[in-house]
Amino acid sequence: MSWKTYACTAASRDRTPHRGQTRSYSEIAAELGDEGLSRAIGQALGHNRFAPGVPCRRVLAAGGKPGEFSAHGGATAKLGMLMIEGARPPVIPKLFF
């Protein structure tokens, strides 16, 4: 793991939204002072091995799209978990209506 990826992982721990809320990779990158970090943050969260402590499912791609999700079920599982938590992402597939 590169230093940049590690730094994004560490920073993301404190910036991950609370239950029922979502944020985007670019919002976290902007808080870190470099919007170019969006992809690095996504990659760092994709390597997350402790989902309860770092709930990366609450971080979305641009435009409220779910983006990737490394757990079984992919983006569909991610959106399902968000709905269980009370979050309403801006983009929800018809499967969830």
Briefly, what is this?
This protein has 97 residues and is mainly α. It is built from four helices and two strands.
Question: What features would you highlight for this structure?
Answer:
97 residues, 4 helices
Model description:
There is one protein chain. This protein has 97 residues and is mainly alpha-helical. Helix content is 41%, strand content 4%. It is built from four helices and two strands; from the N terminus they run H-E-H-H-E-H. A two-stranded parallel sheet has the order 1-2. Helix 1 (3-15) crosses helix 3 and helix 2 (25-31) crosses helix 3.
What is the strand and helix layout of this fold?
Layout: H1 3-15, E1 23-24, H2 25-31, H3 38-46, E2 59-60, H4 74-84
Parallel strand pairs: 1-2
Helix pairs in contact: 1-3, 2-3
